[in-house]
Amino acid sequence: MRVVRTRAEFAAARAQLPAPVGLVPTMGALHAGHRALLQAARDECAAVVTTNFVNPMQFGPGEDLAKYPRTLDADLAVCEDVGVDLVWAPGVEDVYPRGGATRVRIEPGPVGDLLEGAVRPGHFAGVLTVVGKFLNLVRPDRAYFGEKDYQQLTLIRQLSDDLDLGVVIVGVPTVREPDGLALSSRNVYLSPDERRHALALSRALSAGRDAAPQGALAVIAAATAELGREDGTGALAVDYLELRGTDLGEIPEHGPARLLVAARVGSTRLIDNVAVTL
Ligand code: AMP
């Protein structure tokens, strides 16, 4: 496994890799969810590249950029274990040579205004711009993203389709703790009490999924009831709970749909989502 920092080092190492190349972009602080992405790339590609970069452009003012967990040594051990070929851990100046952002940005379309986009203005432009840069710099055949960030995955599929990037975008199912909590690098912020309250998210999604044979209203009612046990108690503040089509458009009468939730538990913001069949 090679570990590189600068653009020049990366380009030299990239040129040695056999095709097809799989890319797994991450912000580090790797957990079993990231490991599943790396393993999927390892299973399907001749070479696996991962980027390890906390992207300032996707954090808003007052968000957790400064305190975001940084655990490069432990991350490298995970990468080594999965059999990654090349880890690129650039500095901010390597990705943004003109300062912490770009002049030109990739703006998400209408899907970028919903859900997370409504709560975090500019977030998805920051995500799509850095993903666009890494896709151009790495030129992978396939790129792997988690369903955990379902709206992000949807927008990255649209980015690749709409701008003809020629990369196959692969979605990987969410990895959870045995009690249902979706793995997230931000879970380290949770106190034991907060972690218990955070379980309301996955419980609400499961309740919604189980009610899906009764239709969309039943899904929302069941999930809301489960969240309501915690919401407003001060322990949990819900940003949204929404049922949408799999493309995040209109809810279908029948068939596959997606139930998505975001809530703050103390000062930690958590998101989760699940597939439902109406
Ligand atoms: P992050 O480092 O949080 O930017 O995440 C890097 C990638 O890992 C993104 O594609 C995420 O969707 C994915 N990811 C994060 N958490 C999980 C999880 N629990 N299960 C599957 N994928 C995940």
UniProtKB/TrEMBL annotation:
Transmembrane segments: none annotated. It holds the Pfam family Pantoate_ligase. Belongs to the pantothenate synthetase family. (R)-pantoate binds at Q58, Q152. It comes from the Bacteria. GO terms for cellular component: cytosol. The gene is panC. This is Pantothenate synthetase. Keywords: ATP-binding, Cytoplasm, Ligase, Nucleotide-binding, Pantothenate biosynthesis. The active site is at H34 (proton donor). InterPro entries: Pantoate_ligase, Pantoate_ligase_C, Rossmann-like_a/b/a_fold. One of its GO terms (biological process) is pantothenate biosynthetic process. The reaction proceeds by a bi uni uni bi ping pong mechanism. It is an enzyme of class 6 (ligase). One of its GO terms (molecular function) is pantoate-beta-alanine ligase activity.
